[in-house]
Amino acid sequence: MSFKDSKVVIVGAGNVGATTAYSILNQAICEEVVLIDVNKDKAIAEALDMQHSIYFMNRNMSIKAGDYSDCRDADVVVITASAPMPKDSHNRLEMLAPSMRIVKSIVDSVMSNGFDGVFVVISNPVDIMSYYIWKLSRLPKNRIIGTGTTLDTARLCCELSKMYNLDAKSVEAFVMAEHGDSEMVSWASATIGGKNLSDVFADNADRTKDITKDELLKRTKEAGWEIFNRKGNTCYGIASSATAIIKSILFNENRILPVSVGLNGEYGLNNMFLSVPTIINKNGAKEIVEIKLADEERALLQKSAEVVQGFYKELQI
Ligand code: NAD
């Protein structure tokens, strides 16, 4: 795949879809971006607005409002369409029923137009929607990637980096499992600059203060709601997360990110989608990385899997 032929279709041109398109253009990672939305004016307006910004960017690219026939030769289709989130809601799982209806109609349209690339799923509840899209599309498991806990991982690394005044990229700590209340952290394998996190905590007590791992996980889980409560959506973090995943697909990067992927016995889990560290390349989810979890972490991962699987019976497949 070369830059010249690369094409990403984004279904849902709302806050997340439009910001993802802008992030892709800003990083100049593909030649053509297409926006699809039931609200055609919104898709047209966002595309036009972004078209004018390309004049100031690093290379020439194209963005337009399109339709499902654009999926035929797309490398990646991003699903971010959604019903509006109720203002007082604090649980992504409440989005299941409306998301299911919307996602089903979209996947039917994408597949009937001959799509043969990789789905990147953002719509919530993202782990359940990723599984649902796998079932509906009948594509191989590796071609469906949910953004999952990539964003939560960025939030955790950001919190840790602030404590020690570091670049967040120097922190390697994965948030895993459900993108939601049952998510957990692989603390046992977490490092900062190659140093075990527990040692960093102990050796820098003046900066660690009384912040515990439980408190960090709580802050990570609440970060999205803190933003949502103030402005009614979150868009930049998720758009950057999706862009990193799409870049790894288009550039065949083999980058490891914690994404929602179809498990084949890894971590003792089967036939379901959950976030675990995964090598991402032009084939989508190339390989799942099994990191060594502490016994209690493995139990939390299992518990989260049960939460997610509990909703599969509600899916209309
Ligand atoms: P939004 O309401 O701003 O945008 C949703 C868009 O989808 C709207 O423009 C709407 O017209 C469009 N749409 C609805 N039905 C459609 C259909 N059948 N076909 C095409 N388009 C359709 O919402 P948002 O803030 O952009 O959020 C989008 C989704 O992303 C939500 O499910 C949200 O929960 C999710 N999200 C996920 C993460 C994550 O980490 N996975 C982070 C943030 C948001």
From TrEMBL:
Pfam families: Ldh_1_C, Ldh_1_N. InterPro entries: L-lactate/malate_DH, L-lactate_DH, Lactate/malate_DH_C, Lactate/malate_DH_N, Lactate_DH/Glyco_Ohase_4_C, NAD(P)-bd_dom_sf. It is an enzyme of class 1 (oxidoreductase). One of its GO terms (cellular component) is cytoplasm. It is found in: Cytoplasm. It catalyses: (S)-lactate + NAD(+) = pyruvate + NADH + H(+). Keywords: Cytoplasm, NAD, Oxidoreductase. One of its GO terms (molecular function) is L-lactate dehydrogenase (NAD+) activity. The keyword NAD applies. Substrate binds at R92, N124, P125, V126, D127, D152, T153, A154, R155, T234. Gene3D superfamilies: Lactate dehydrogenase/glycoside hydrolase, family 4, C-terminal, NAD(P)-binding Rossmann-like Domain. Its EC number is 1.1.1.27. NAD(+) binds at G12, A13, G14, N15, V16, G17, D37, K42, Y68, S105, I122, S123, N124, T147. Residues 149-307 form the Lactate/malate dehydrogenase C-terminal domain. GO terms for biological process: glycolytic process; lactate metabolic process. CDD domains: HicDH_like (cd05291). The active site is at H179. Transmembrane segments: none annotated. Pathway: Fermentation; pyruvate fermentation to lactate; (S)-lactate from pyruvate: step 1/1. Its main location: cytoplasm. It comes from the Bacteria. HAMAP family: Lactate_dehydrog. Catalyzes the conversion of lactate to pyruvate. Homotetramer. This is L-lactate dehydrogenase. It comes from Treponema saccharophilum DSM 2985.
